[in-house]
Fold this sequence. Notes:
Blueprint: E1 3-8, H1 21-30, E2 34-39, E3 52-57, H2 65-76, E4 80-82, H3 85-91, H4 96-102, E5 111-113, E6 127-131, E7 141-143, H5 148-160, E8 165-169, H6 174-177, E9 179-185, E10 188-195, E11 216-217, H7 222-233, E12 243-250, E13 256-262, H8 277-289
Parallel strand pairs: 1-2, 1-3, 3-4
Antiparallel strand pairs: 5-8, 6-7, 6-8, 9-10, 9-12, 10-11, 12-13
Helix pairs in contact: 1-8
Amino acid sequence: MVxxxxxxxxxxxxxxQDRDFPVLVRELVAAGADATAVHWDDPDIDWxxxxxxxxxxxxxxxxxxxxxxxxxxxxxxxxxxANPVGVLRxxxxxxxxxxxxxxxVPTVPTTYLAPGDAxxxxxxxEYVVKPTSGAGARYAARYTPEDRExxxxxxxxxxxxxxxxxxxxxxxxxxxTGERALQFFGGRLLHAxxxxxxxxxxxxxxDEKVAHPDLEVWYPTPAELAVAERALAAxxxxxxxxxARVDLVLGDDGEPRVxxxxxxxxxxxxxxxxxxxxxxxxxxxxxxxxx
Length: 291
């Protein structure tokens, strides 16, 4: 019997819950595994007792990046971690978008502003400011050129906390056709979803946001699938990927572009795609057995 740690976090009251979790635990146990929900920062856990540490919903890691990176380093010394630790560390900083662009992957154009950099912001279109280490639209906001003063204050707040900021043009198609989330598992497309716009005009960076509004089943076009596969092919240690989510938007030219790669703790949206559950379970069991 393989032992699997399904790795999550200890959420504060009222924060997001992992809706995939009960399904994964139940179905892995039904398939003969010893599957257990484990908090990544629990000091009493013997990680070496598990065949696989499956990172699923460590949703506080962006607040505690150094601690999380230290845990990854310790954990990989005693058991298999999925995704591979090198991939997880690479994906923790969204400056990877620059690497994807350099590799020829169509991405949303991105400028990076580190602490101490001048606040260079667009003056001819809407844009988004967010941290390079963030999740769930935390510290993200949408601005017009007339909102420059608020955007500068936003940058100052992030820089004061040590974050590097990223500035992207707001992709207007999101308001009409939404974002596409292509989910891969076990090396192949698992399913896809579409969600509505997360950032409403006039909302501030510290407003609470719904991470996946108006979620629905989506069937990706050949062009969307091709861009997603190009992005994953450019990931370091790509053959070791167990799971991945590629978030795409349509650029001004109508062609798909990568908004983000989710390789650490993406929602699987299993309640929307129940037929994907057996595929996920078998892929996880194979990963645990191959330690």
